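Hi all, long-time lurker, first post. I run a small reading group and we've been trying to get comfortable going from sequence to structure in the token notation. Rather than ask abstract questions, I figured I'd post a concrete chain and ask someone more experienced to write out its structure so we can walk through it together at our next meeting. Sequence below, copied exactly:
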Amino acid sequence: MERIRLSVARCIIGILVTSAIVCVSVRAQQQPAAEPVGAKAKETSATTEKSDAAAKAADAAAKPDPDPFDLYEFPTHRERFDRYAKDTVGPLRFARTAVAAGLDQWRDTPEEWGQGMKGYSKRFASSFGRNAIQQTMTYGLDEAFRLDTGFQRSGREGVFPRVKHAFLETITSRTKSGKRVLSAPRFVGVYGGAVIATETWYPERYSYKDGLRIGTGTLITNFGINLVREFFIN
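-- Answer (accepted) --
Happy to help. Here is the structure in token form:
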């Protein structure tokens, strides 16, 4: 018993010493090397002159930018949660689920679920469950990484810039400053929901590959919906 205590104590001391060494090393790397006072003064003066020149050049070349990110405001926690609830169990979500189930019924996919009201009910429940998983995973990762995946119209003019914006809204998220980043929450949610569905309640012949295919179809559908939002919905 005494040997175990000594071993644990040695491990703890080793971890503390290692952590202290790492912290000191990182701090030393972050501190700039000392410079002669005269050289530093000259460098500061030169930097100031360059900054002033750059500012004047920027002011001269500045043009009004219709990009709304200058006015972008990161949604509050309440707003993000309300959006999650609406995208999961809202009226529009039920309508989209009903349409998706109807299309699968028309294509007889999966054929093992048959036709009629029983087959439609299975397809409706499947689509609803897959979306619930997708929205929950996306919302959870958004909260963890402090990102925003909500759609925002661009306010731009011209077809191509607006189509580009709709596409970017499909594959990116925004940080608190409004900067775009590749949306890990969006991709994990879309593909995760589809793969879990095909591996859980779909017929046995389905696999994760079918889930990836379904996830890609969902992204394409979302792009189409974003186009409608961008061009036709205020």
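A couple of things your group might point at:
The helical segments are 2-30, 37-61, 77-89, 91-107, 116-145, 159-171, 184-200, 208-232.
Residues 68-232 form one domain.
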